[in-house]
Specification:
alpha+beta; four-stranded antiparallel β-sheet
Length: 171
């Protein structure tokens, strides 16, 4: 008798749980928290990608040296060949500045429209790249030559440079 009650109780519980799951699936699926909004055919391996704070600008680049900018709906805004593997891509929070560092030791700064504003050469390939939220400063750290350089994004001029006695592998 006890076995019959336990079996009935377990079946009822499983039926209720199954019903709750099935009823909640349509609501969960409509939220699309991790759904695909758009996709792009990529020619090669992507090493760097970033987005503006509001998601209106998405920029990525990789081994083939092409840096691609897309709007929030996936529409192409611009593509540029930066002359070497794009190791790092950074977008300012407001989306007005895009910094790219390559394995060929070049840091390039573009505006939102894809116009090249300036380039800066480093001694070694960059291991890290950053850009301030307001887009006024860019920082680059170099591999094996413990150097950090801060650049003014309006001119490309060096604001600060420091050489350290340690090896940097990432920033």
């Amino acid at each position: 008798m006890l076995k019959k009650r336990t079996t009935w109780w377990l079946r009822s519980l499983l039926l209720v749980i199954t019903g709750l799951i099935l009823c909640s699936l349509p609501a969960y699926a409509s939220r699309q928290p991790f759904g695909t909004l758009w996709d792009d055919t990529l020619p090669d391996i992507i090493y760097g990608a970033d987005t503006s704070g509001d998601g209106s600008l998405i920029v990525y680049g990789g081994r083939d040296g092409v840096v691609c900018a897309r709007d929030g709906d996936g529409n192409a805004l611009w593509d540029h060949n930066v002359g070497g593997t794009a190791l790092h891509v950074e977008v300012s929070a407001d989306g007005e500045r895009v910094a790219v560092a390559t394995e060929t030791r070049i840091v390039s700064l573009f505006d939102r429209d894809g116009d090249l504003l300036w380039t800066h050469s480093t001694r070694m390939p960059p291991v890290g790249l950053g850009i301030s939220d307001d887009g006024t400063l860019a920082v680059v750290a170099e591999e094996r030559s413990p150097r950090v350089t801060v650049l003014d994004t309006s001119t490309g001029e060096i604001v600060y440079r420091a050489d350290y006695d340690v090896r940097m592998e990432y920033v």
